[in-house]
Amino acid sequence: MCRSDVKQAVLAKNDGLAAELRADLARQGVSVVNLLSSPGSGKTELLARVLARAVEREVPVAALTADLATENDAVRLARSGAPVQQVLTDGLCHLEARQVRARLDGWLPADTSVLFVENVGNLVCPAAYDLGESMRIVLMAVTEGEDKPLKYPTAFGSAHLVVITKTDLAEPAGFDESAFRAHVHRVNPGVEIVRSCARTGDGVGTLLDRALAARDGTLHRPPLAPHPHGHHHPAPAPAV
């Protein structure tokens, strides 16, 4: 079996487990929000703010956070008052559906309505793995460069929502938001782009509202959304 065949077999197995997990959680009234970004995008601090806002609003949420090592992010997120668990990936640069299910078994509170999953900081491997999510959010800090959607079209092309983080640094970073938005819409036409800042709280309420709306199936349909049988289309080549 060639390398590409092995990869497809691994992805197919993951997709099957993800479909089962999504169906099981749906029966429990739980929707999953998968958060993808590069390292250093600020997604942990922003998620902490979202969880705290949910607790304030008495919305029953929970979170899984993944890293190769340390439980630092779980400690940070738990300060929100929401139930949190850490997943250590044992060197894997992404989460897989089997790891999510294993961590949820016997832990997920019965009244949970939204489970946030903070994936490993990486825009390559995690984009290929369905975690049984109802919604995929891709985040990018203003310090990362406007052309990132063109460099990582699979991640941005599979997003139900795109979030700009650290907007308080946009001016000193020389961030060209118009160019970024144009690049996002080149690979994912029509996707909503939300501005956020964990420091000021900008966008926190919007993110929570969008996650709650996902429970009702109110979602943008990205071009690289998984098929009912699991796989994604290949990423389109960005126009030049």
From TrEMBL:
Residues 218-240 are annotated as: Disordered. Belongs to the SIMIBI class G3E GTPase family. HypB/HupM subfamily. The lineage of its organism: Bacteria, Bacillati, Actinomycetota, Actinomycetes, Kitasatosporales. It comes from the Bacteria. NCBIfam families: hypB. Residues 32-194 form the CobW/HypB/UreG nucleotide-binding domain. This is Ni/Fe hydrogenase formation protein. The keyword GTP-binding applies. It comes from Streptomyces incarnatus. SUPFAM superfamilies: P-loop containing nucleoside triphosphate hydrolases. InterPro entries: CobW/HypB/UreG_nucleotide-bd, Hyd_mat_HypB, P-loop_NTPase. Keywords: GTP-binding, Hydrolase, Metal-binding, Nickel, Nucleotide-binding, Zinc. It holds the Pfam family cobW.
